[in-house]
Amino acid sequence: MRGFFYPESVAVIGVSPRPGNLGRNIVTNLKIYGFGGPVFCVSPRGGQFEGQPIYTSMDQLPQTPDLAVILTPAPTVPGLLEACGQLGVKRVIIESGGFSELGGERAGLEAQIKRLAKQYGIRFIGPNCIGVICTQSGVAVPFPILGRKAPTGGLSIVAQSGGIGLTYLHRFSQEAIGISKFASVGNKVNVGERDLLAYLLDDPDTTAILLYLESIVDGRAMCDLIRQSDKPVVVHKSNIAELSHGIAHSHTAALANDDLVVEEALKQAGAIRAHTVNDCINIVKGLTMPRPKGRRVVVVSRSGGHAVVAADAAHRLGLDLPRLPDSYLEPIQKHFRASVIKLQNPLDLGDLFHFELYVEILRGALSQDNVDAVMIVLGYRGPEAKPSREFLKQAGELCRKYGKPVALVILAEPEELALVSGLSGLPLFQAPEEALLALTRSASLADRRPREDRLGCADYIPVDVAERLERILNATGDDGVLELPEALHLISAAGMPVAPFVVAGDPREAAGAAAAMGFPVALKAVGVSLSHKTDQGGVILNLASEDAVEKAAARMFKMLPIKRLVVMSMISGGQEVIVGAKQDPAFGPLVLFGLGGVTAEVLKDVSLRLAPVDDVEAGAMLDGLRGADLLKGYRGLPAANRAAVLQVIMQVASLAARQPRILELDLNPVLVGPGGAVAVDARVRVRPQTSH
Fold first, then answer.
1. pLDDT by residue (tens digit) across 88-136?
2. In what order do the strands lie in the sheet with 131-134?
3. Integer Cα distance of 642 and 676 in angstroms
4. Does the model's pTM come out above 0.85?
5. What domains lie within the chain, and their CATH numbers?
6. What is the DSSP code (8-state) at residue 65?
7. pLDDT tier at 532 (50, 70, 90 boundaries)?
């Protein structure tokens, strides 16, 4: 990847002498950024541009360039890429559009360039992109005119959309946030976010990374990379509508929609998720300040209204507003002109006009042991401008001295904001909510678990059961769905607790099995078409005699298209939870946990992780539910056995990771109580062995 950012020479293919030619803009941008190496212009028509020759073909160049940039009509690209390969060019950026994004036969062009790249050992970015920028080397090859060089700094940007990428580039330049690398990846045919992320995490000039993605190809590998680095990674994932258009056969598949998977996987990896452009910009601004060690914030405001708004935002974001000691508050109170404001956190300084005291107020707040960050809301105009500017300078100095972030919300005229933007060396925010969001996301980095291993390293399935699991998985119907007895045998073989059950082929056999098992029992119809057995009369509970079992079984065999049924011991007490797993096309095996019944389906109160998981991750899944207190003993309800619940989560996750043929798995419900956890129903869909 380094070759894209640090070439010693560049060829721009598609430069012509005529005005309006986009290839000329690439050459101009290289000059704006101060690229010092030779730049060769190439076009079949030849000619000159700014006194330099335009070569008619690649084989006319005086030397083999380190990097070639192609901006010509899509049908010409395969031939030009082959010419690059024959000359020995190993790094190419294809900015031309008109490939698979248009659908139809254009996808064939992508197949051609993919094949040629493999043939000649070429790595290429694109097509349908605007290229790369490196402020250290002066490489800047986007085809829109950039106007001016972005300030050099530690932020690197990888964007699937060139337009969004340029928006970020320009906005961060306006905020005086320095850029290290920029890459627009377009269709991601050869080089994608995984390749660039791996490079940037090792790049000494990159201190923070922003990814703008509309699709994720290898989410598991991306999350592994993020997990193993201490560099902050902000991911703005858009295009959040459900992408998997296949029919969901299980509750887990329906609940684990694409954006929930992205959200939870990024959280598990330790990335920071952003949902809007403005949120992303504010989050990155927060990363330019010292990282808070916790979530304890002091709010200082010249406006009581903004103090209230800040308190609300802190509550929504999960920030703490610690109590401030009287020894800190009383000296401030003495300077108030009237005793009409009770000092607390947030600090309302609306009655204090001595700006020189603001410095001491900030110093005192930063010196508190129970304070991790300070937010200042400062509105001023006219004669207050001069002392306010002096305060901003000293705020930056105090931030650096104490190593704690100071988020500055400045309420002033646009001209004043432009004037003071660089005074403190700190980012400026326009609203309390923006500043507190930045502090919250930065503080979340302190919660990251330091792990050098890959995600999902734990395994809780006995190694000697693999052959038995494989035999059970092969007992599927044409649609890949295991019937209930086989599904129960599968999870039992994997070590999960299952309620005692027997399979019966007729009413009399069912009655005999129930008598041997002991009453009461439940009857469950067996059939792959019975996805909601209860709704179809396929489940009858609390049968207390042989006669009742035989009659109920007879009705079931008569009314439903079944050849078998399950006789299962009734498990009394406990609460229902759902534990499931699925294979995600981008992130691989996932495990899901939620409260059972309609709670998971209607309220979507579920937790999701990449599988497998250890006890810490499983515990976070349980604690992350809005209804988690129901499992911990609420209003007289007995608490569920936490260790047993976590064990089931870990075992389901291990089974999904161990057996990638399992596409969907539901244990719904699992009954949990003080004595443990037991599954009473299961549904499994399997990938046919021939396609594995």
1. 999 999 999 988 888 777 778 899 999 999 999 999 999 999 999 999 9
2. 139-140, 131-134, 179-184, 152-159, 208-213, 233-237, 272-274
3. 8
4. yes
5. 2-239 (3.40.50.720), 285-447 (3.40.50.261), 500-570 (3.30.1490.20), 575-691 (3.30.470.20)
6. -
7. low
